[in-house]
Each structure stands twice: as structure tokens, then as C-alpha cells.
Specification:
With about 325 residues, the chain is α/β, with parallel strands linked by helices. Helices cover about 45% and strands about 15% of the residues. It is built from 14 helices and eleven strands. It has helices spanning about 5-10, 25-35, 45-60, 75-85, 100-105, 120-130, 150-160, 175-185, 195, 205-210, 235-245, 250-255, 260-265, 290-315; strands spanning about 15, 40, 65-70, 90-95, 110-115, 130-135, 140-145, 165-170, 190, 220, 230.
């Protein structure tokens, strides 16, 4: 047992990321039932849909699960009211100021984790009273920090500057990368892309296949004028690139992005016009697996790699 397993009441120090259009109750409950922290991604849910997923997740697992809430969500107060009414015990916040909501959650006994991408916001999260931070490097899919720090650089920096547990995220999908993150001082890891392509993920099968067939260099970090986002290259990205090549501005990019691009790509499977958000680690995801198999393989690889490193060390 370490700081994260003790804090969250889970078997393995692994968090399944709360990804929009992927992390519904089926994925979250399967993750929780197999020893890690399952997470519902509220960012793509209307308030009544979130309530439904929380209730279904409660019926599907007796183990801890969390809800991820982007703090820029337009109906944020309604979401929090649902969390309180449904007595959710763990909340992960991202994309905003944690001091606005953390104390209210703590007063209700809720464990709070906050996603950060630099030391400044890690310290702000700690000052706000969160229980742990999730340090996410820019290898991660979806929205990213503007500093473009890689996980290998970010994690040890955050560990040195705060006194609460640190969870590493971004570019982690195997037992080997999990061990690397823990070696840098992380108390646990958050894994997104590999779970996004699991059988239990609510992502469209065409999107899953597109990710499985992707290779290194197929993702790109773009739209920095709005909010940096990592996506797979496709026709929609070519439209973004064309705007940059002619010279563009925020208004043009906003108009092109429009509404529902992520849903169109990930949930509806429109591989041409959709925003296909996924992490750089997608290049090593070669098949669609069950959550159970993913977790078992990660844990086995972690233990084997750790054992092999000790054997190598004995010979040095």
C-alpha cells in the first residue's frame, strides 16, 4: 500500500482517466472492479446524464470510483449539486481554479485531486487543500498545458515542490512506463489512451480502429491560441493546418472548431470531420482489449520490469 492506494482505497496505484465520450459507467465500473480507480468523464455529459452514469456505476461496482469535472464546464454548479446529492466520494477537477470548489467538497468528506501541468498550479492546488495532484505531461491526449513539459521533466519537478501525493499522467500505458513514473517520485499513475481504446470504452469502434492503426508522429499538438489540444491527424486537422499556413486568428479557429467536433470524432466515428483526441502513446496501442486484460498486463509488466531491473543492478 502506498499514498495513493491508501488515499483512494484501491488495490493498484492506477487511475483510469476521465475522458470525454469514452469514460462512461461501463468503463469506470470495469476499472474499479479490477483494482484501479475508475473515473466518469463528466465533461461530455449533461447534468441528468451524469446522474444516470453515477447511479449505474454504483450498481455495477462496490469499489471506489471518481468523477472528473472540467471546471470550465458551463453548468458546473448543477454538476456539483448532483455530486453532492449522489454522495460521490472522489472528485478529480481540471482546467480551472481549484480554490473555488475544493473546500466545499472537503467539508463533505470528498477526496479531491486536481490536474496540473506546471509548478505554479501545483502549489495553488496544494494551497487550495486538494488531497493530491495529477501532473500531466504534454504527451497526453486532449487538452494540454501551455508549457509543453514532458512527463519525464514535469513529475520530478512537481515532486520537489509540493508535499502532497503526485500522480503522473501523459504517455503512460504500460507497466514499464508506470515504473519509470514511480521511479521519478510519483505515487501513482493516470492512464487515458489505453483505456479509451478498451472494449468497455464508449468511443466509436471506427475511432478505436483508427487509433490502433496509428503510428508514431500521427498525433499533433495544435490550437494553442484557444487551448492546446493533442489530436490525430485527419481531414479536420488538415483544415486547421491550412488556416495556419495562410495566417489565421482566434476567431477563424473558433469558427472552424465549432461545436461537437470531439463528439463527432470519438463518439460518432466521423474520422474525416471529427476531432480525434488521443495521446502520443497511441502509437504503441495495437489492439482493443478488455479493461481486465489491460490492468492485468500493466501490473504484470510493472512487476516483471522491476524484477529485471533489480537483476541488472546486481550485475553492475
Amino acid at each position: 500500500m502506498n499514498k495513493i492506494t491508501k488515499l483512494l482505497g484501491i488495490k493498484y496505484p492506477i487511475i483510469q482517466a476521465g475522458m470525454v465520450w469514452c469514460s462512461g459507467w461501463r468503463l469506470a465500473s470495469a476499472a474499479s472492479n479490477n483494482g484501479v480507480l475508475g473515473v466518469l468523464g463528466a465533461g461530455s455529459m449533461y447534468p441528468d446524464v451524469l446522474r444516470e452514469h453515477i447511479q449505474k456505476c454504483k450498481k455495477a461496482t462496490r469499489h471506489p470510483f471518481a468523477v472528473n469535472i472540467p471546471l470550465f464546464y458551463p453548468q458546473i454548479d448543477e454538476l456539483f449539486e448532483i455530486l453532492f446529492q449522489e454522495k460521490v466520494k472522489i472528485v478529480i477537477t481540471s482546467g480551472g481554479n481549484p480554490s473555488l470548489y475544493t473546500q466545499n467538497m472537503k467539508n463533505l468528506g470528498i477526496k479531491v485531486l486536481h490536474v496540473i501541468a506546471n509548478t505554479k498550479f501545483a502549489k495553488k492546488a496544494e494551497d487550495a487543500g486538494v488531497d493530491a495532484v495529477i501532473a500531466e505531461g504534454f504527451e497526453a491526449g486532449g487538452h494540454n498545458g501551455r508549457d509543453e513539459m514532458t512527463t519525464m521533466c514535469l513529475v520530478p519537478t512537481i515532486v520537489q515542490n509540493i508535499n502532497i501525493p503526485v500522480v503522473a499522467a501523459g504517455g503512460i500505458a504500460t507497466g514499464q512506463s508506470m515504473l519509470a513514473a514511480m521511479s521519478l517520485g510519483a505515487d501513482g499513475v493516470q492512464i487515458g489512451s489505453r483505456f479509451a481504446i478498451s472494449r468497455e470504452s464508449s468511443a466509436h469502434e471506427l475511432f478505436k480502429s483508427y487509433v490502433v492503426n496509428s503510428k508514431d508522429g500521427d498525433t499533433v499538438l495544435t490550437l494553442k491560441e484557444l487551448a492546446p489540444v493533442r489530436m490525430l491527424k485527419n481531414d479536420f486537422y488538415k483544415q486547421i493546418l491550412a488556416l495556419y499556413q495562410k495566417g489565421t486568428n482566434k476567431e477563424e479557429l473558433t469558427n472552424l472548431l465549432g461545436r461537437g467536433r470531439i463528439k463527432k470524432g470519438i463518439f460518432e466515428g466521423d474520422l474525416q470531420e471529427g476531432n480525434l483526441e488521443i495521446g502520443q502513446v497511441s502509437a504503441i496501442i495495437n489492439s482493443v482489449e478488455s479493461v481486465k486484460d489491460i490492468i492485468q498486463n500493466i501490473v504484470a509488466d510493472y512487476q516483471l520490469t522491476k524484477s529485471n531491473l533489480y537483476s541488472i543492478n546486481d550485475k553492475v
